[in-house]
Fold this protein.
Amino acid sequence: MGAELLIETLAGLAAGRLSPRRQDDGHATFAPRVQKADAALDWELAAPALANRIRAFSPAPVAFTALAGDAEEGKGELLRIHRAAADIGTPPANGFTPGSFRIAGSRRAPRLAVTCGEGSTLWPLDVQAAGRRRMPIEDFLRGRVLAAPIGEQGTPVGRFLGAAQAARLAEAQ
């Protein structure tokens, strides 16, 4: 739509049908500077909103989360998510709280399904662990010990921290 509007506007200016006018600065608004903590993912949001945030924070500062575990001791593992897809299909089974994840797919092509708000699911596609290179989720999962069952209705195998906790952990590291 933007490309079509640009062509129409340039043609209108060239033909003399349009005349430029100054912007009223009184109606302008300012956005605050984006901080790294703003890129922490809040799993209470619906998956489409999270997928849009991931896209908005790419290429920098890159959306991130942290694996729950030793986060209380400041030893949680940060995970950057570069690309993701959203699924607003059927809600997950009972026991799947926002931020919980399960391994889906097969051992050959594992996928990570993260439960989000409103019963939606986020599917990370490209991730980057701290100190590692960016990689497809399949490679990331193959490089980890997958003791959990694989399958669409598998039980949650882990949990990501909330946005505030992940942001605090990122500041500490």
